[in-house]
Known about the structure:
Elements: H1 26-47, H2 51-74, H3 80-113, H4 115-141, E1 150-152, H5 156-172, H6 182-199, E2 204-206, H7 219-222, H8 224-234, H9 236-269
Antiparallel strand pairs: 1-2
Amino acid sequence: MIRRMPDTDDPTISPPSRPTRRGVFLLPNLLTTGTLFSGFYAIVAAIDGNYDRAAMAIFGAMLCDGLDGRVARWTHTETLFGKEYDSLSDLVAFGLAPALVVYQWGVARLTEHNAVWGRLGWLVTFFYAVATALRLARFNTRTASVDKRFFEGLPSPSAAAVVASFIWCVHSYDRYLPLSGMASLIAAFVVTAVIGVLMVSRFYYSSFKGLKLTGRVRYTSVLLIPLTFAVIASEPPLVLFAMFGTFALSAPVMWVWRRARRRPNESAGAGPR
């Protein structure tokens, strides 16, 4: 009896993964160290009151985090050590660093307005850090059983990008924004709390792993790359907040849209029995 081999072009079937090796390799772990350093620098910059630099450091951590895993796969240097080191670095860069940036920027000012608001802000920033740890732990324990095309819950780098870019926006455009004083502080903590909830939610976000970067594309598509960088460079905090904020809201909005479409169909199909 001849068994049919599975179709390797099917995106729902992931190819067999190579066994993770033990040991330490220099290049991918240097990039992971860059993630950890960027998170540490973001905390130090926030303590010194340099919130724009703190936000830039978090985006630098995102860049290093996006490269270390790919470099490890390209060079076949995936190890158990690298996996654990990456998770610990992500917790610092995308959990503790954004939480402490928000804390340093707003909690002290909230306490000046009201002691109760200050305690609430303290709890919100701690909740964000805990949500990041839970999100990373869930990701690590379900890596082998989930669909690679989607993330369950908002990924921690994207969550950190939303929080960091919001603080960057408020800090940079404080004189131009309608939010000022107490309103801006409350908005910052609402954003932080909502993003923390989205990280531990059951919403599914696209991982964009279905995109084939090695295939042939149209020449006009290549022009989108410098155009995207030009748009980001024009107003980095505002554009980055719009981009990552839209991504964070995409899953809840799609869930509501699907529920709204389903209800009329269900009601239309229901008749007298």
